[in-house]
Structure formats: C-alpha cells, structure tokens
C-alpha cells in the first residue's frame, strides 16, 4: 500500500475505475491523480490496487477538515440518500453537491458530509 502524501488519502480500485471516474467522484482532476500516483497508467488499473487521491477523504472528514459557515458535519446513516438528507435539512440535492464533491449514487454508511446547520 503506498504512503500517500499529505493532503491525499488512499483508495482501493473497484471495477470500472479510471482516473477520469475517480476525479469526478472525488472532486479533483485526472492530472492531479496522475501526479499523486507516478508511473500508474489510468487505463490499466487493477481491482484491489491502492491509489492516492488528492483532496479530502469523503469517509473521514469534510473538505479541508471543516464545513463552511452555516453548515455542520453529518454522518451518513443506513437508508440515507442525498434526496432524503436534502428534504430533512430543507435544501436541495444540488446545494448539497455544491458543498460535497461526492457521487450521489455511492454514499457509504459512516461517510461524513456537510449539511446545513439546524
């Protein structure tokens, strides 16, 4: 497993991953992922391979370790969707995605996102 540089987190490759899909999922660029993983070819990733992804870890902390003013951390619970969270917090999915660079179809139980404060 590679030692990831500060400001990045380790990620285990899943089927269908490449630098473009990972960049979209984690709110970064394919070029930034390539720089964090010298010598790795985006189009020949192996399932189970570990990569370093620049940016914040969506499973550990909100972006830059804190939420914007007026927002607070929220831990994803079983059954949560961005739609249900948006409804609960009286906001929109688009507003949640503006603050949280996450794949709305791939939320994980325990993942922390930022939501409007109550």
TrEMBL record:
The GO molecular function terms of this record are: lytic endotransglycosylase activity
InterPro entries documented for this protein = LysM (IPR018392), LysM_dom_sf (IPR036779)
This protein is called: Cell wall degradation protein
Can you give the residue ranges of the LysM domain?
9-53, 72-115
